[in-house]
Amino acid sequence: MSNTELGLTGRWNASLPASIFDQGAPGRRGLTFPRWDGETIEPRLPADVRRAEPADLPDLSEPEIMRHFTRLSSLNHHIERGMYPLGSCTMKFNPRVNEQIAGLPGLADLHPEQDVEDIQGLLAALHLLETSLCEITGFAACSLLPSAGAQGEYLGMLVIREYHRSRDDDERTEVLIPDSAHGTNPASVVMAGLKPRTIASRPDGRIDVEALRKAVGPQTAGIMITNPNTLGLFEENIASIARIVHEAGGRLYMDGANMNAIMGKVRPQDMGFDVVHLNLHKTFSTPHGGGGPGAGPICVTAELEPFLPGPRIVPLGDDAFALERVPGPDDAAIHAFYGNVGVCLRALAYILRCGGDGLTRASECAVLNARYLQTALAEILPVAHAGETMHEFVASGAPWKKEFGVNTLDIAKRLLDYGFHAPTIYFPLIVEEAIMIEPTETESRESLDGFIAAMKAIHAEAVRDPDILRNAPVTTPVGRMDEARAARQPDLARLGPCQCG
Amino acid sequence: MPYVPHGPGDIRAMLEVIGRDDISDLFSHLPDDVKLQRPLDLPAGLSEEEVRRYFLGVAARNHGQGELVSFLGGGVYDCIIPAAVDVLSSRSEFLTAYTPYQPEVSQGTLQAIYEWQSYVCRLTGMPVANASMYDGATALAEALAVAVAARRRDRVILPGTLNPRYARVVRTLLGERGIELATAPAGSDGTTDVEALAGMLDDRTGAVVVTNPNYLGLVEPVARMGEIIKTAGAALVAVVNPVSLSVLMTPAEYGADLVVGEAQPFGMPASWGGPLLGFLACSDAYKRRIPGRIVGRTRDNRDQEGYVLTLQTREQHIRREKATSNICSNQGLNALRATIYLSMLGTEGYRELGEANLVRVTALRRRVARTAGASLPYDGPVFNETVVRLERGTAAGFIRFARGHGVLAGISLDGFPGCGSGDLLVAVTEKRTAGEIAAWGDLLQRYLDDDAQEQP
């Protein structure tokens, strides 16, 4: 059957608009400014500090601008268009009320240099978020400062480092990282001035406890563990792992990227961790926005709390709050101000809307959805590592490669023709031709069945005519991009004069 | 349950496929000794209306720049946000999309980022820009790490006139990388002492930061600084307010190698300081070294033009511990907002924006000049921020007094090198009216007069 007979064409009817730098005409304007109604002023700005030529920008009217960006928007896959089975990214529904709330006057228009008297409501809300995240993770204290998961990792490493230093334990500089970890883990360790050391996973994808026992020592600052790990498998030996690391004097960092699997079921502190970061843009429903902004708060034990950078939000009773430990010029800071506050407010709205039972239900259904997909696809897409997979599973495209000569990328690209986003592919690195699928709890049974049907149809295509996969996608606004050309002859900006009207 | 589609029938049917009786069976393999044996101690879920009511209550306890008249700056400014910015950026297609790793279904995000990179290049005069950074402060730290690595030198000079919040982030993020940080003093005119800077430069200095305008709002001697930094063989890393580039010399014109800054004024609400929009631009020599995402234009297998994330071999998901940085997000939605904002301005609008800031800050300075008991300690050119010196009382006292009259008068500079308890940093953006500036001046006069009566 052709793509048209399959009903795959016509999903996208958009082509790329012209560059904005080639639109409009001189004299057109979108925004004008209020007229100055004060005394006439010719500003004194010496010629030798002025720019030589005005910046050459395209001149467009508001209707043209609305059309340009609306046309651009029609070229995007997004959650409200279709599913993102994107492992490790937790692409769940983004509630609209969260957006309304973050934009409220009295929240969106607060300046970071305002006095605490003017932001009492904000501090109450942020404190409620901190205590809620502490309850979800089991920890004693929370810092909302990190702007992203990677910054949470960095701050977590900083806290562990400062803890060891405070005990004159300066030799503890090594951080153990399983080979299945996110790439940010080792990168964050290096930025914090510590040394990452990779530990191999066991053949079943879990941490090798015996190897760990041999790896720890007086040099161990800590370990970074994702649990459930990036294969979607729970590290069932976590309590022994924590004991081994603690007995060696190290501290345990949990990469909370997969928290969506375990809310209300098991808490990082109870597993023996000392720090966790949470991706508010994953587990707590804030939008990805095409790449950000997200937020990556960390929660820590009481032992590590003193090493969190300021300011700390402190309740004074009677619903009044103060900011304490406001950083001085020589204190640590990872953001000019207080991190991505607007994102934090959205996450709090989500937590309040769900409640404890709703969050638990979210995790249950996230696991249910993943297991349902995994079971239904087991024949054509077997998992790489046996075990009770949780909110996501990792299959290997290796059998498809062997039998049909198509690789994981081809499968992913053909899914685009079927109206789905591609899964995460080629990660984790320990799985050959990895395909990592995470449906999240906000996909309905019908939507999962649609995905299953698409995967089966693609499998049938691979059997019959693997070129269909190799040439995919064919129904999308553009085909596969020449990435080698993009990297070899980088064209990174539209320079030169605007070619308008 | 909110946001979860499953009814009881769905769950039963799905469990049957999986071969389990109860949803809790899916968690039965979690070891008992770590499992949570009670429900989460959080309130029961609320309806959307109750959540909204809670936040309306929260917002009502705050007093923002919509309710008060704001002269606060210091890195975040009260600016006009056109409706098109909110409407377009809240479209699901942009808001709920993932990072554009699948270019075939992400051309909207990719082209918008490419256009953002192009705008940054046009504003700064640089040929290359990335997709964005968390904020101006982290962008500066990252740019410095790039500069010293490229120059193979291990010393960085920061100007004493740098925003102290930026200096703090730089010290934190570079603190463990074996980089020595030195501070160049300011002269009595409130800008970097060029002679002193020249004396500090040596063959270990890999990068020098130039901040323009500086934290005190003053235009720095950028041309002279550019010359001596070049001669010393160090990289010039500029920190700029991108609004000011509408009228001020571009970093490219004074020889910058890397340029960073905070683009919040291009359509971002202040939001208590975040999320913001850091940007990072560079000369061609640095394009394979800078951190963060970069979009490039290329062709597809149907011979059409299109866009793609490129030069990814710099990034953490490929390089892991050898990566340029651990950053793996950008402020995509905010970069989109800024792109829409700039397209609303156009060439003439951008220039007018700059002039509007200059006019308003000049009006405020004139008012101060006419005010007995207050003065302008620095006469150099400013863009939209200025230092006001109170001869009586304190900046903190005036801030409290003005706040009582619904005005956020400025930021106290007490503790900033060269400043004292009477020094106030005042920002005047295009949003302030002549009447608001006059009212600010009246409050200043009244505060000074009251203070004179109290302390004869």
Report on the architecture of this protein.
The complex is a heterodimer of chains A (501) and B (456). Chain A has 14 helices and twelve strands. Chain A is α/β, with parallel strands linked by helices and 501 residues long. Chain A has a domain at 97-354: Aspartate Aminotransferase, domain 2. In chain A, strand 11 (424-425) and strand 12 form a beta hairpin. The longest helix of chain A is centred in the C-terminal third of the chain and has 37 residues, at 341-377. The model of chain B has no long low-confidence stretch (mean pLDDT 95). Chain B has 456 residues and is α/β, with parallel strands linked by helices. The radius of gyration of chain B is 26 Å and the shape is globular. Chain B has three domains: 8-50, no CATH class; 69-75 and 349-454, Aspartate Aminotransferase, domain 1 (Alpha-Beta Complex); 83-341, Aspartate Aminotransferase, domain 2 (3-Layer(aba) Sandwich), CATH 3.40.640.
Could you give a quick summary of the protein structure above?
The complex is a heterodimer of chains A (501) and B (456). Chain A is α/β, with parallel strands linked by helices. Chain A has helices spanning 62-73, 96-102, 120-137, 149-166, 184-191, 209-215, 238-247, 268-271, 341-377, 398-404, 408-417, 445-464, 467-470, 483-488; strands spanning 141-143, 174-178, 195-199, 220-226, 251-255, 275-277, 298-300, 312-317, 320-324, 393-396, 424-425, 434-437.
CATH superfamily name of the largest domain in chain B? Type I PLP-dependent aspartate aminotransferase-like (Major domain)
Unreliable residue runs of chain A: none
Q: Describe the sheet with the most strands of chain B.
A: 7 strands, mixed
What overall geometry of chain A do the principal axes of the alpha carbons give?
A: globular
Q: State the name of the first-level CATH class of the largest domain in chain B.
A: Alpha Beta
Q: Quote the CATH topology of the domain at 97-354 in chain A.
A: Aspartate Aminotransferase, domain 2
Query: How far apart, in Å, are the first and last alpha carbons of chain B?
Result: 67 Å
The CATH topology of the largest domain in chain B: Aspartate Aminotransferase, domain 2
